[in-house]
Each structure stands twice: as structure tokens, then as C-alpha cells.
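[Q] Does anyone have a clean C-alpha cell version of this?
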Amino acid sequence: MPKISLSSGVVHYRELGQGDPLILLHANPGDSLDFAAIIPALSKKYRVLALDWPGYGESAPPEHLALVGPRYFYNVLREFMAILDLGPVFVIGNSLGGNAAARLAIEAPELVRGLVLVSPGGFTPHNLVTRSFCRLQGSALAFSPHFFASRYLKRRSPVVEAMLLRAQTTQSCPSRVALNRAVWRSFSTADNDLRQSARVIKAKTLLVFGEHDPVIPAKKDGAMATNAIHGSRLVVLPSGHAPFAEVPDAFLLEVLPFLDSCQQS
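[A] Here you go.
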């Protein structure tokens, strides 16, 4: 598994295939293995690079949890792309990874050829309930990674079962739990909110949401993202928070033609 040294520490990533670069960005918690069901198909046409965010998978943890938030992960992405001389790229981002992917299209549009946002963070219309839940998940009273993942992953598959096992083991160690909580605390901050800034996105964008996702619901967040990103298309699949792992064939049926259309435009 290749790795590079960034200012945040050593970051590991998976790389497979040749062609135009396609970056995969995972959620909190999670790692690059979450995309195992779709990487083989994507790598037939693209140079697929799937990151482990700092503190996830094989990557070194952040030195200071107080710095962790949407901007922190976005900066990791930018530095990763700069060192590997990537760009313009295609990006598939899930949840936290979706926030970083959308931010890339907002702040560096020349680096994005096509954008697939999968249940992306940053489009939640916050209220007392949602902010209270973020505070809960950012505290010592938070649901465990395994318990929470077992609720938002609605369809079982070998990849999903492996995700649940990692949530129960490696992602439940004290340092990973502390990181998980720090990220959750950042979700209700103003810097996480992309509802206005996403209006400048010009890249072709496909929005993929899970019909049964209790964390980032398609009806509210999906509608908000569609309204914010001009010309985007919304697809709702029969899954929870990670349709690429839960219903990979249905996911690829939407994503592969979309990526082809981005290449041709």
C-alpha cells in the first residue's frame, strides 16, 4: 500500500488502474477499504486512488484533535493532489469525504473534471435536534462506531460486513474514538456548511443518496444539495449511508455512465 508524507503526517492510499485520476474519499469513521466493491470496476478505465484520511485505516493520526474539521481534511486532499501532481481529477466522496470533494470544486474548480457526492456532509439544515445530536456524538455519551454503523448501513454485503467488523475492532480503539468524536463536533460548525458556497460549483455533479439513510436523509439533504449545485442530478438508491458498499452494482450503473459523460464534455 503506497504512502506519502504530508504536513499532517504519513498518509496511506490504495492505487489501482491507469488512465485519468479518480480519487475516492471515505466517511467518518471508515477507510479506503470501504470502496472495495467498486474499485475493480472503476480501475478498468481510471487510475483509482483511495485515501485513508489521517487517523483512519493505515494513516498516521492528527497531532492535534483541536485542529480537526472540514478545512483540515480538505487541506490534506489539496496537499495529496499537489505532491502526486494530480489534477484535474474525478472525485467520489462519501459524507466527510463528500464535503472535502465539494469544497475542492468550490475553491479549486480547475482541478475537478467530475464530482460524485455520496450522502455528502455540509448540506444539513441544522436545527436544535441536529446540533444536539452532533454534540452527543462528539461526547463521551456517543454511540459506539459499531453500533452507529450497524444502524446507518442498511443493506448487508461482504464489504459491509467487513466495514462493521472494522468499526467493532480497529475503529473502536480509544484514539480512533477520540478522532471520531472530534470530527462529529465539527459537523455543526459554520465551516462545515456548504449550502451557500456550493452554488458556485461548475463541475458536472452527480448526487447519490441512500433511501434509508438515517444520518444524511435524501429528502432533506438531497434536496438541499440539488438546489445548491446548479445542474446537478440526484439519484436515490435502496441503501443506507454507503450505497457503493451496500448496492455496488446499482451504484456503478449510475456512476460509470456519469463519469463517461464528464470525459466527453
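[Q] Thanks! Anything notable?
[A] The beta strands are 3-6, 9-16, 20-25, 46-51, 89-94, 112-118, 205-210, 233-237.
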